[in-house]
Amino acid sequence: MSPGDRPTIFALSSGNPPAAIAIIRISGPGADAAVEALAGRLPAPRHATLATLRERGSELLDKGLVLRFPGPDSATGEDLAELHLHGGRSVVAAVLAALGRIDGLRPAEPGEFTRRAFENGRIDLSEAEGLADLLMAETQSQRRAALALAGGALSRMVEDWQRHLLNLSARLEAALDFADEGDVEDELPDAWREGLGQLARALAEILDRPPIERLRDGVRVVIAGPPNAGKSSLLNVLAGRDAAIISEIAGTTRDLVEAPTAIGGAPFLLVDTAGLRDSGDRIESIGIDRARASLADADIILWLGDPAECPHRERAILIHSKADLAPPTTEADCSVSARTGQGIDTLIDLLTTRASSLLPQQGEVAINARHRSLLIEVRASLVEAMAAYDPLVAAEALRQARLALDRITGRAGVEEMLDAVFGSFCIGK
Fold this sequence. Notes:
The protein is an alpha/beta fold. Helix content is 43%, strand content 17%. The chain folds into 3 domains: 3-108, Gyrase A, domain 2, CATH 3.30.1360; 127-210 and 366-423, Four Helix Bundle (Hemerythrin (Met), subunit A), CATH 1.20.120; 216-356, 3-Layer(aba) Sandwich (Rossmann fold).
């Protein structure tokens, strides 16, 4: 479908009413006609203009600001308009209903504005993914990583890799073109292989970085130890709310209790577990088995038991709990009291320091699982090309590497992903 044949879409792009201001976006070939139908005239492009909105000259809908952004130099790459209205439910409902009665207009689907921006070349697929992450960001670190992706940081890196790869591919193709004339050695030159090696090492560096999903899911911190060690009390203090039930009765916690929270601007998923002990209670035993399994998946373990019994010591912080009741042990990394707050700041410093090495660093480009799988494909193709003695085999490997890079930015082979990516957006985005 050509851009001129597309239906014109509209949607509320601000938060749900009631609100001080509501913004309705209109995008498509009929955007100007829709504005003229409601406002009675077309304001100058890119100038906020006060207008009285009526449906076909009948009763007043609202008085608000109208902005026009002619395509292709707009957010969606096509004619775009915004109506800035009073944010009452009745006003928004009346204007949306009036737009729905204009021929050629229909309500937008989730993510359709952003999808049109992608299809019209205003953004690439990785930038769209960054925008989706930005809409879901809840912590400062999530916001920074999403802004970098939405701002094209990964796209620029991919473009550099593509230029490097195209240069190497061109040299190889030239070698193949002149091979029949006897001007090219049977083996590919060392400098060419070194160029591939440099690119492979650059990709390996990116792949070694912490994944962006950890910013969304949080650093998994499992609080473990024997019954009545103060695990639930510590979770509540760190989470800043009563997420777990506290009781003097041993075995109160029988299942995993998860509490997502932000500490120092970084995301954490705190997990309270059943006290580790031998138990004849079948239900409690199930909880203990789950607690032991959760330790294997933990990024950080807060161990509130005997240091000698701590599993996965390399990932653990040894906690002397209830420090207000008993002196600390020399093996403990930190002494805390959930009741008095003693040592909590020290523990938080230890947590944020450990987490800093597990999360994407500020200023670094973080990649998601889709990017990672494609970069692994690219690197595997580069390794295959470096190992090949037949130039034809090497050329095919480089072609596969270029295709995988194109799929990162959405230039090829991503049709099956588009619905899932843009379907995660809200209606007005």
